[in-house]
User: Fold this.
Amino acid sequence: MRITAASSVAKMGRLAATEATGHIRDALARCNEAAIVVATGTSQFETLRALTQAQGIDWGRVTGFHLDEYLGLPMSHPASFRRYLKERFVDRVSLRAFHYIVGEGDPAAECQRLGKLIRDTAIDVALIGIGENGHLAFNDPPTDFCTQEPYHVVTLDAACRRQQLGEGWFDAIDQVPKQAISMTVPQIMKSRAIVCSVPDRRKAAAVQQAVQGPVTPDVPASILQQHRNAALYLDAASAEFLDSDTLARYAGR
Assistant:
């Protein structure tokens, strides 16, 4: 794992997007196609903005996969991750295909459908974030590091639901769905490269635990320590609790 602490959220996003762009270009040069995973949330605003402005990518050879989505939330809802991705990413580039998670209908069947699509696909880069409770995607602690399924139905814990409320996606906690479909941690870890964008001081404790603590299902993001090509992009606030020795040890790895 490598860590880059930028001076601002905007710079963090540009740096993360530059790295993701490099992985996409390499895949296109090597295989004539690329596959990516795209996350949502406030942590991805700057990264996705910069990525959609990147030059020299033939998006028509790129396939995208959706990371997670609430159950039962229509695409018309302001908090819908399908809506978020359509407005902030999919409508701004011309992808070969983008595979949304549909959280309405039969969730087990939807997990099977998505699993068939991604199981034999080599993901070149996954753009992800870390939650305030240390989650990856919607895999709240303690999470399953061993499942063989690419997608599963999860129950959101109280901290995760409070984060969604605090970020302004909902007006009241009882409006936040209690379940979601999420890409699993093992599926995320299969990605050839991971670019993780994590701004804001409210995530500083989770970043510290993920980087300086043991690898444990109680801190799902700690698994990134075991990935060969994971890059963690922080701003000054989210990096606040990391000591200088840690930043030096993980810089440029």
